[in-house]
Amino acid sequence: MGSCPVVEVDDDEYAKLIRRMNPPRVVIDNDACDNATVIRVDSIKKHGILLEVIQVLTDLNLIITKAYISSDGSWFMDVFNVTDRNGNKVRDKEIICCIQNSLGSDACSFPGIGNSVGIVPSKEHTFIEMTGTDRPGLLSEICAVLANRNCSVAKAELWTHNTRVAAVVHVTEESTGGAVEDPERLSAIKELLCNVLRGDNDSRMGRMTVSKDRTHTERRLHQMMFGDRDYESTVVGAGDDKPRPQVAVMDCAEKDYSVVILRSRDRPKLLFDTVCTLTDMQYVVFHGTVDTRDDEAYQVGWGSSHHCRAFSLSI
Questions:
Q1: What mean pLDDT comes out for the span 149-166?
Q2: 141, 192, 250, 315: which one has the fewest Cβ atoms less than 10 Å from its Cβ?
Q3: Residue 312 in contact with residue 299, Cβ under 8 Å?
Q4: Is the CB of residue 180 less than 8 Å from the CB of residue 151?
Q5: Strand 257-265 to strand 246-252: parallel, antiparallel, or no bridges (unpaired)?
Q6: Do the beta carbons of residue 294 and residue 128 sit within 8 Å?
Q7: CA-to-CA distance for 273 and 8, rounded, in angstroms?
Q8: Residue 259's pLDDT is what?
């Protein structure tokens, strides 16, 4: 969906030098807008950097009400209007400091897209990632298998879509309270869970991987769902009359990119989910605008309905 050149930032010494000479610049302004804090981010462009910035803001529970995304040559320039969960400007000094440290020159550079899920070694938990067929009682069966193998579930997050399920479970050794180390036990757990994850009438095998690295859970769940190809079928429940998102894709052959316009009811993390999907599909957002309003949202001349978000993403 576009073959415009992208500046690849390799992790060699020369690339590191260039990033140190041109560190990201972050400006946080509470005076430029009446009802939101304006955050401007300028940095060297590389694949995945937009997602990394949005991920930082989302993890701080900030709501992005407007955004302007632009790339010029090898530079990436973003402007975000954000509020807290209560719709107020961001005035908490701790959060402001965290934004500066995470995105600004103190961070020196963002991690590569291969590490954008935030991999951090952990001795406290074993992380079990699973995909399979969804059905009632599945989570209970998973927990029963782990309990029978003397494992405790410290934390779990599970997504379902189109009869498919993806889960990231944080598991500890019942006796020690630390990560599960025995490879034979992990192999036995994997075999049992894969059987549980496979549906009775489904030819698709369940999948399970084990890691001792802490990852950004929601980012990883996006990757797992995409890898499981959950989008290939659409299941509509009985009585499901909720308005579906409207997505339009237009080809701009003369500019060698496509324009994606998305309209849907607004919700937290919608921009994060959208950019995650595009990034996992190996598309690059060169330009984009985001606008949310209580009554309506307008974008590139399109009107939209109550409580909506509209995107115009050039990828």
A1: 90
A2: 250
A3: yes
A4: yes
A5: antiparallel
A6: no
A7: 23
A8: 84
